[in-house]
Amino acid sequence: MNHWMSRRKLLLAATSLPIAGMASAEPLQRGQLVNWPGVSLLDGSRIETEHVRGRPAVVVFWSLHCAFCERHNAHIEALHRVSAKQGLLVLGVVAEAQPRQLLSHMAARNWTFPVTLDRSTLAAALGARRSVPFTVTITRDGRLAEQIPGEMFEADVLGFRSLLSA
To answer: Can you give the residue range of the structural domain that contains 83?
Structure first.
């Protein structure tokens, strides 16, 4: 095995940190209709199925203790800031946290994207794997576009704005 391959395997293993208690549902297939559940947000509001209809979405599963998630979520925040008023739903799903701890974590980083602690509900609906960060994109018509394990570059995350025109 060459040096590049061993580094790649190490990086892939490191960016797919398993999360205890996160059920691994059967993966959805690209183009399959997503059965959106209602979820409670950290701010006390809810996102119900009807709020998602007709809106593209980017959902990222992450952990407070994941350095890869930290960098990835800085890009998720940038996406949220540039596209929220255009109708793109950006939603964070935290793998483990107490609400106060999570609020403090997000405030310290000036992250404002909506977050839920309803991880098992969304993991089951979106077929999320037991790794973080794990990003799922959903088209305006409610179909799975992509499931992407691991940290992403800023340009790739910001590229999700294309969901608005699809």
So the answer is: 3-164
Q: What are the angstrom distances between the C-alpha of 63 and each of 4, 67, 151?
A: 28, 9, 12
Assign residue 90 the CATH number of its domain. 3.40.30.10
Report which listed range, 4-18, 28-42, 74-88, is most confident: 74-88
Answer whether 76's CB lies under 8 Å from 39's CB.
no
Crossing angle of the two packed helices 67-83 and 99-109, in degrees rounded to 10: 70
Residue showing tokens 């999360």: 19
Q: Is the pLDDT of residue 19 over 50?
A: no
